[in-house]
Write a structure and sequence with these properties.
The chain is an alpha/beta fold. The protein folds into 2 domains: 189 residues, Glycogen Phosphorylase B (Rossmann fold, 3-Layer(aba) Sandwich), CATH 3.40.50.2000; 202 residues, Glycogen Phosphorylase B (Rossmann fold). The protein is built from 16 helices and 15 strands. Strand 6, helix 7 and strand 7 form a beta-alpha-beta unit. The longest helix is centred in the last third of the chain and has 18 residues. The chain is globular. The protein starts with a strand and ends in a 13-residue tail after the last helix.
Amino acid sequence: MIRTANLTASISRNAGGLFEGVRRLLQSLIETGMDACVFGLRDEFTEADIETWQPVAARAFNPVWLEKFGYSPRFLEELTAYKPDITHTHGVWVYTSVATSVYCRKTRSPYLVSAHGMLDSWAISHSRRKKAIAHFLFEGRHLRGARCLRALCEAEARAMRQIGLTNEIAIIPNGIDLPAGGSSGAPCWEGIIEPGTKVLLYLGRIHPKKGLADLLRAWQLAISDTPLGKEAWVLAVAGWDQGGHEAELKQLATELRINWTVLKGLGRTSGSGQLEPGCYGATSGPAKLASNGQSKASVIFLGPQFNQAKAACYHHCNAFILPSLSEGVPMVVLEAWANAKPVLMTPQCNLPEGFAAGAALKIEPYVKSIARGLQELWSMSGPDTRNLSERARTLAAERFVWPRIAGQTKELYEWMLGGGAKPACLADF
């Protein structure tokens, strides 16, 4: 039985899509007969989320020094006690890189690095000076010493080559669970938007690289040119704020004269909600966005959505959008496809198979292209929309389900340990 230790900065929802991707990978590997554990740092969501890792052994450590660097001596202590056959680092630029490098060099055991999009050109250019220092001090050694690197897509593999890495590279994407049938519960906007209004969902971090500022500018342009879209659709922005970017987006929406609101304190048991003071709408009872006679909101900031609430967002939205400037392979697009939702996304999402299969509408990461994509979505006929949805679900089921991804990863581990043929997932460049 192969034993694998997995190191990551956070084992809670605080890690965003990486949390879901690593958790489900390890759970799927255990189903193949492997033994897997995960080590990460403790944060404000750890206690709520740690049980979701079962049957994976998840261990959380308190950061000791320089919290953003993520140092804890427990990483090395637990690695030494666990004695993995393979160590797997998820994410780079933090202390987990140091711990993996030190332990595996000492024990002469192989390790795999999954950068999760953190080595592409956009990511490296963000905080470039800090990353240059980190690369010199520890990250360069960590990356060069890996028996293999895992890229989520071909574009990420090529980005690794562009920065001079000569290791073997395995291209293995993130995976997805297909939703089971049955009720997903009511979405958080139930009773808030008017019946019959369609919802275009964004879900993820509220961060500049996601392209949300240009999405708002494109939304304003599209509804100005297509009044029918304004009446028929609402843009729902769900996610957790990073670095105060949500406040910047609200200010931008105000400057663009977009009617917007923020959903707060929603009580799912009563079906009532509140809108942020200073925005229009009801403040108690079954709220309606146009209940005070003003124009209805066309943009709603929903706040973070997790677990059942997140599933309900996917199930009840009418389409999904990700106008990102940089991604590895975004879990949110895979989740939207698994829920058979039409998707608008940029090539920077690194899922070209979505365009090839006719499962997504292509938008470029600038205002006019996003606006054209919105108008294309709004003008689609019912049969065209259903065909797009069916192709999305089929693509998710054929290419991205977790048993397939776990099987590829297990083959890679076996090859790294000297057994089995060279796996097909290894890049040939």
